[in-house]
């Protein structure tokens, strides 16, 4: 029987439809080559749909819940007040679907330029695991005396042991399948209460994983060490806000937002996980063909691994790296090829089974191996 997967596709805004279109072309090639199929349904979520209907995530929740995975483009438009789409759709989906772990590989691929002098691919191959549903992003806060000189704004950060434990346990499992090193990144000398809870959870769970070495780095020190010595890190686990910041720093190190990828994982199988490139909607270049689709296509590789299509995931990653390494620039007209052409090049390599495994000696499957429902707590 042919393997089949239900995929919800959310192209979104700006360059989202362009890069997702490339990812779907590569998915077609992977299906033809590796003998599985997907049933896809596309949803018109995003700025234009919101402006026309006022609908956000709540109106799509029941339909999306039936998918095996979600492939997401980008969301954001100058016509929509900042925060409406981000909180009303993206954060709402993460929380309602309990996509507890945001997983972002930070890999410098062969042939991809980096602003860090002397950095080589062998030194830059880590994964940042960000708690994805709590912290400062729970949306709790208030303002009094707004619009006056006495305005006061309060913003809450929520940390629960249950929320921390599930993502730390996932990070330990991930580290156990990689180089067996886990680093907690926080700010325990200032955020004492939250930091202590995170440290307690890491210390408690470390007894279940005696083969994994643990250490701790302040978030400001992480911003120093990450670009200068990324080889120090294997798996980094951190809270929602700190993770949002240091993963963008990681993206710069690996060549820019256009080549970075992420997974938003539901860890108990109760709802679909979502896979997305980490760049924004970039409305200023939408329609120009200047967007690099690699981040979206590597997100497809993560999704395929999550769905159990390991061979296809390896091929998509390797084909993407081959094309990336041939580009004179990673974005803009200097790329030497338009967005759609790059997608077609990658799809052709996958379809013809012409990937070179030597380009990716440690596949993203080192990350994908842990993208499974977590085991029950002891």
TrEMBL record:
Its cofactor is Mn(2+); Mg(2+). InterPro entries: ICDH/IPMDH (IPR050501), IsoCit/isopropylmalate_DH_CS (IPR019818), IsoPropMal-DH-like_dom (IPR024084). It comes from the Bacteria. The keyword Repeat does not apply. Gene3D superfamilies: Isopropylmalate Dehydrogenase. Residues 6-346 form the Isopropylmalate dehydrogenase-like domain. It holds the Pfam family Iso_dh. Keywords: Manganese, Metal-binding, NAD, Oxidoreductase. This is 3-isopropylmalate dehydrogenase. It comes from Leucobacter iarius. The lineage of its organism: Bacteria, Bacillati, Actinomycetota, Actinomycetes, Micrococcales.
């Amino acid at each position: 029987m042919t393997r089949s997967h239900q995929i919800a596709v959310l192209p979104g805004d700006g360059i989202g439809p362009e890069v997702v279109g490339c990812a779907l072309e590569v998915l077609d090639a992977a299906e033809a080559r590796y003998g599985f199929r997907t049933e896809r349904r596309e949803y018109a979520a995003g700025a234009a749909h919101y402006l026309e209907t006022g609908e956000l995530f709540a109106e799509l929740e029941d339909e999306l819940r039936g998918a095996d995975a979600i492939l997401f483009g980008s969301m954001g438009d100058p016509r929509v007040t900042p925060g409406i789409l981000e909180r009303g759709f993206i954060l709402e989906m993460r929380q309602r679907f309990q996509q507890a772990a945001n997983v972002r590989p930070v890999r410098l691929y062969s042939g991809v330029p980096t602003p860090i002098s002397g950095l080589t691919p062998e030194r830059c191959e880590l994964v940042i695991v960000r708690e994805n549903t709590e912290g400062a992003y729970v949306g709790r806060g208030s303002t009094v005396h707004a619009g006056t000189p006495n305005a006061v704004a309060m913003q809450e950060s929520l940390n629960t042991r249950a929320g921390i434990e599930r993502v730390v346990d996932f990070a330990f499992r991930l580290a156990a399948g990689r180089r067996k090193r886990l680093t907690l990144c926080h700010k325990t000398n200032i955020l004492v209460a939250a930091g202590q809870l995170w440290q307690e959870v890491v210390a408690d769970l470390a007894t279940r994983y005696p083969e994994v070495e643990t250490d701790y780095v302040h978030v400001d020190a992480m911003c120093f060490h990450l670009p200068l010595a990324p080889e120090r890190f294997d798996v980094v686990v951190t809270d929602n806000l700190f993770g949002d910041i240091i993963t963008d720093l990681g993206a710069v190190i690996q060549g820019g937002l256009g080549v970075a990828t992420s997974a938003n994982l539901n860890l108990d199988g109760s709802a679909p996980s979502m896979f997305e490139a980490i760049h924004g909607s970039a409305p200023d270049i939408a329609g120009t063909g200047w967007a690099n689709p690699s981040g979206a296509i590597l997100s497809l590789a993560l999704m395929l691994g999550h769905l159990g299509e390991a061979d296809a995931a390896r091929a998509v990653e390797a084909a993407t790296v081959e094309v990336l390494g041939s580009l004179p620039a990673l974005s803009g007209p200097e790329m030497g090829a338009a967005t759609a052409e790059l997608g077609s090049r990658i799809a052709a390599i996958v379809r013809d089974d012409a990937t070179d495994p030597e380009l990716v000696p440690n596949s993203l499957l080192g990350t994908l191996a842990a993208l499974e429902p977590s085991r029950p707590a002891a």
